[in-house]
Amino acid sequence: MQHWHLDVTFKEDECRARMGFTSQNLSVLRKIALHIVSEQKDKLSMKRRLYKAALDINYLKKLLEF
């Protein structure tokens, strides 16, 4: 399920980063973001949660609270 989310939501298979460790670093960041967003228990889809976090600073702060 995780690979599907990474591919569909983040378009990981279409990523063109190839220099050095760039692709590995981006993969780790995507997995961290996926984990943080998936912990939020609201009725929005994963893609909509990411979009909302990008636009709404208060929602982003809510996601990043520990």
Sum this structure up briefly.
This protein is mainly alpha-helical and 66 residues long.
User: What count of helical segments does DSSP give?
Assistant: 4
Beginning-to-end CA distance, first to last residue: 25 Å
The portion of residues assigned to helices is: 55-70%
Estimated radius of gyration: 13 Å
The geometry reads as elongated
Strand content: under 5%
Given helix and strand content, the structural type is mainly alpha
Total domains, how many?
A: 1
Name the average pLDDT. 78
Order of helices and strands: HHHH
Low-confidence stretches: none
Main sheet characteristics: none
Number of strands: 0
How would you describe the overall organization of this protein?
With 66 residues, this protein is an all-alpha fold. It has one domain (2-64). 68% of the residues lie in helices and 0% in strands. The protein has helices at 2-10, 22-39, 46-55, 57-64. The longest helix is centred in the middle third of the chain and has 18 residues, at 22-39. The model has no long low-confidence stretch (mean pLDDT 78).
